[in-house]
Amino acid sequence: MFIPSILLKQLYNRGSLTLHGSGVRFSLKNRLKDALVHEVLDIRIDDKPIASGKIRLQLADGQCLPLSEFNSMGTHDFPLRASLSVFVDDFTPVAQQKHRIHVSFRALPFGVLTFEVDDVATEEEANPNKIPRSDSDDYGEDIIKQRQRFYAEFSGAGIEHIAKFSIDPQSLRGNIENFIGVAQVPIGIAGPFHIQGEHAHGEFMIPLATTEGTLVASYNRGMKLLNMSGGVKSTVVDDAMQRAPVFVFEDARGARDFVQWVKEHMDSIRHEAEATSSVAKLTYIDHFLSNKFAFLRFNFRTGDAAGQNMVGRATFAACGWILDHYPGIQNFYLESNFATDKKASHINIMRTRGKRVTSEVTIKREHLLEVMRVDPKQIDYHGRVAGVGSFLSGVNNTGLHSPNGITAMFIATGQDVANVSESSAGILYSELTDDGDLYLSLTIPSLIVATHGGGTGIGTQRECLELLGCYGRDRVYKLAEIIGAVALAGEISLASAISSSDWVSSHEQYGRNR
């Protein structure tokens, strides 16, 4: 089975080379897929072969075996994300210097895997304030209590509310490290809210997790108004998640020729990327040339997962194949800051990151006057004035506060809240109809959401998704349509409050907690 050399090197845990007694240790981590280790063939440090009698291997269960015994036992489970520690006795490399490590072993289903990496040897830490950890079970009750006591003693404060939780810590593997408890954020509900989506159709009660007074009330008011006009039409119009590597060449012509080669080998690149996942689908690659750099923006569909890790792994595998097959690349970085992960950017407004969703409604004039005490002309004129302010300030959102509702729903439903930075972009548009009503439309060009994986399966987060009918597979477009509609309800509510000058009075009534 062909595995690009750059991907093979990821088996080594960078920074794990440490002095240990009279020897040294380092560790490997399975970042490929579930495997069985058959035998370790060769270990060298600085091109010096290490005698098998000086090598011990520690499995994930803590069992430590001499190499000869390890190899004689047949196969050993090496599941995905598991680690394997290698101890080399009577061998002490110079600390704080870079050393070359060579590893070769036989594993199923891969065959013989061989790689070389450089790492710097360091002294083992003797830190009295080191956070307690357990190599065998870091999510067990005893180690959690040890960390809680450690933190309380270190800070001099008590841990009372943090330590109370209903979720099983064992279910948090892959979600949190050094777990000590939970943060409890109040959840309110708004609705019912009528949504006319292609995937979200009907009435929904919306969970909003926040500590900001008036937020739930404001969104509830907006939903009431939009329901009177038949609800919100919500549509997912695009879907893409990116990773954007950069390749460095001797000159601009080298970068230009490389891009042409990438176009000609798209089928092979797609095959290597999609081989890493049963879900990720590489749809296209954008290219951008500057100086002697070739920026490639890989675009994927990622099913019901947000997909940043998924596309990172897939792009890494594809780039490994590229590096092994294209000569003349002087340097390479998997992420060039062009995917703008966790950052607002204009390219994501133009090209989509996550889900591009548009929510729209036509609001009757009499309903606006009845519920919000404003005329459509006031809202439309206010929007045009605010557009000048948006232009002058250079913001990524021509609306008012769509990230408010997005954040509250992200916290409630277990989304990666840092993605609000990208999801904060919004394009709000309004126009007066011939009947004097108000057409209002909000496009969120980079809404990054998931209904499967990540934090969506944890306790309250899963419950909130289930209350929306959005937990699990084939639900992500439904969730995107709901969030888009909720954001629009918040826009009309706040716009009306500002236009009618009751914004401050509302906050005084509902938002004071002092």
Automatic annotation (TrEMBL):
<dbReference type="Pfam" id="PF00368">
    <property type="entry name" value="HMG-CoA_red"/>
</dbReference>
<dbReference type="Pfam" id="PF25653">
    <property type="entry name" value="HMG-CoA_red_N"/>
</dbReference>
<dbReference type="GO" id="GO:0015936">
    <property type="term" value="P:coenzyme A metabolic process"/>
</dbReference>
<dbReference type="InterPro" id="IPR023074">
    <property type="entry name" value="HMG_CoA_Rdtase_cat_sf"/>
</dbReference>
<dbReference type="InterPro" id="IPR057868">
    <property type="entry name" value="HMG-CoA"/>
</dbReference>
<protein>
    <recommendedName>
        <fullName>hydroxymethylglutaryl-CoA reductase (NADPH)</fullName>
        <ecNumber>1.1.1.34</ecNumber>
    </recommendedName>
</protein>
<dbReference type="InterPro" id="IPR009023">
    <property type="entry name" value="HMG_CoA_Rdtase_NAD(P)-bd_sf"/>
</dbReference>
<feature type="domain" description="Hydroxymethylglutaryl-CoA reductase-like">
    <location>
        <begin position="7"/>
        <end position="120"/>
    </location>
</feature>
<dbReference type="InterPro" id="IPR002202">
    <property type="entry name" value="HMG_CoA_Rdtase"/>
</dbReference>
<comment type="similarity">
    <text>Belongs to the HMG-CoA reductase family.</text>
</comment>
<dbReference type="InterPro" id="IPR009029">
    <property type="entry name" value="HMG_CoA_Rdtase_sub-bd_dom_sf"/>
</dbReference>
<dbReference type="InterPro" id="IPR004554">
    <property type="entry name" value="HMG_CoA_Rdtase_eu_arc"/>
</dbReference>
<keyword id="KW-0521">NADP</keyword>
<dbReference type="GO" id="GO:0004420">
    <property type="term" value="F:hydroxymethylglutaryl-CoA reductase (NADPH) activity"/>
</dbReference>
<keyword id="KW-0560">Oxidoreductase</keyword>
<dbReference type="GO" id="GO:0008299">
    <property type="term" value="P:isoprenoid biosynthetic process"/>
</dbReference>
